[in-house]
Amino acid sequence: MRIVGGKHKGRPLSAPKGSSTRPTSDRAREAIFNVLAHGVEGSGLPGARVLDIFAGTGALGLEALSRGAAHVTFVENNRPCARILKDNIHTLGEDANTTVIERPASSLNAPTDGADYAFLDAPYDQGLSEPALAVLAAQGWLKPGAVVMVEVAADETLNPPPGFSLIKEKTYGAARTVFLGYMR
Asked: In which band, very low, low, confident or very high, does the pLDDT at 125 lie, cut at 50, 70 and 90?
């Protein structure tokens, strides 16, 4: 697994051994960031504030930093994954541009700044995406007009809470990415 674009292009990322995480593939990440760069009105990562929820290795958020995001807040509840995430951040020299929160996404408190973009890549078929979206909206984690990418299993149902509207969906093998707009 590696960064696929931007200033860190080609740099490798560490991942935990075993099946405790399911990092988004390089190919899918490239497609996701192409949609964000070219397929979402008003989008643009340079200078953006980003959330990477269920961060795992941090591949999505680190890709955003590589492509010009100003700051990424990572949320990861699994301690071994959080250690690897912090190692990946340090290896890329992005410590000053990141915050790591080690707690469940469902228990986040209000932030100091809302995000322009959010990535949610919860474990498949556990019903974690909708509650996380609800918390992000209720606690002010998203700016009005934020774009949220939710990755779910290709056959998994996603019913976003009020305030979110569908922008685009794409399927990549066993995964489906759903792009949502957030309006308060």
From this structure: confident
The model's pTM is 0.92
d(CA 108, CA 12): 30
Domain of 176, CATH number, reads 3.40.50.150
Decide if pLDDT at 115 tops 90.
yes
Domain count, the chain: 1
In whole angstroms, give the CA distance from residue 56 to residue 110: 22
14 within domain boundaries: no
Write out pLDDT tens, residues 46-70. Answer: 999 999 999 999 999 999 999 999 9
Residues whose CB is less than 8 angstroms from the CB of residue 161 and which lie 6 or more positions away in sequence, other chains included: 130, 133, 134, 137
What is residue 18's predicted lDDT score, i.e. its pLDDT? 63
**Position 9 in a domain:** no
Rounded CA gap, 27 and 158, in Å?
23
Range of the domain at 152: 26-182
Residue 15: both structure tokens together = 């991942």
Strand 175-182's sheet: what is its strand order?
98-101, 71-75, 49-53, 115-120, 142-153, 175-182, 164-172
Contact indicator for 39, 104 with CB cutoff of 8 Å: no
